[in-house]
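Possible regression after last week's pipeline update?

I re-ran a chain I had predicted before the update to compare outputs. Posting the input and the new output here so someone can diff against the archived version. Not blocking, just want to make sure nothing changed silently.
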Amino acid sequence: MSKNSILVINCGSSSLKFAVINPATEEEKINGIAERLGSSEAVLRWTLRYKNNGEKGSQTLGLAAHEAALEGLMGLLREEGLIEGISAIGHRVVHGGENFSESCLVTDEVLNAIENCIKLAPLHNPANLTGIRAAQKIFPGLPNAVVFDTAFHQTMPAEAYLYPIPYSLYKEQGVRRYGFHGTSYRYVGQAAADMLGLDINNSNILVAHLGNGASACAIKNGQSIDTTMGLTPLEGLVMGTRSGDVDPNLFSFLNKTLGYTLDETTDLLNKKSGLLGLSEMDSDCRVIEDAAVEGNEHAQLTLDVFCHVLAEKLAGFAAAMGKIDALVFTGGIGENSSIIRKNVFERLSIFGFKLDEKLNDETFRGKSGVISQEGSTVGMVVATNEELMISRDTQALTA
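New output (post-update):
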């Protein structure tokens, strides 16, 4: 069998997303997720894209961790006759620090550099390394490539990535804004330019990647010049359970008034804040939107805070870029929430945005397209595809 497929692996702390993609046609053969890894409820779920319009399946994994989940995946791929066609494996890695400005093949030096970034992403990089090492063991001889969330943002100028704190912390500890969602931004920026007939190297595109994790990015001439996430994915926008920007002295205030420890406040800001904390309902934007539609004023206030912070950041980015060729919404919320998009459009009307409500309401569930009126500054939705971007990079590195 000819080797004509890329296996894409995205390891989280307790999950493993995967896809097998034909790089020539860019079609997915299978995709899925192994989730709840390390618990008694670990399960592998998949969709066979090439069968009966997407045949779905699942199997329990017992107490499987990442390596056992990969072995289960290998059994599935063998059963479906896909394993022999895999030519290379592409991995998402969350944090590459300043070591990586582009994707690369895995070597011992690369693994050591990823390991050295664990202090910057203690929840993510260890899981990413586990996935890489397990893949090397289970698929001996196949090349592995790594694609970094942070790499795209290495083009930011120093004025955008430096914090106004003692410079020694940057020089000695690497404390700076790194940004995330870079693989998504690279895909969406190029896709938006292609859809609009723009030269990506002569363009000014704002992108809002909105999901449980949310960020925004200013892409000028195909390069990131600013983004909202920082040293960690906590900074910036309001997210599902993350606060985004707050007064840093909140740590001291909560310690002195309520006795919160450093870890307790960190946990509060990462897991109990954002949409969940503010709404006192749920971290899922859809639940809050439904409540707002039914007249719940506190739910509406939560959505307004979310959109206010986003619009404020996008307006600042627009000033840095000088002009706007397009504002692009992507990610689970960005691609599906007509309510959020309308709210943000209204807040950015000073930049010439006028919403076409019919197009806005019709653009969801993976659809891409312009949602602004003719003659308006362009606003649009682009469905992101990080797996395809990882597949493209892996193919380019191993072809």
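Follow-up from reviewer: compared with the archived run. Residues 297-321 form the longest helix (25 residues). Marking as no regression found.
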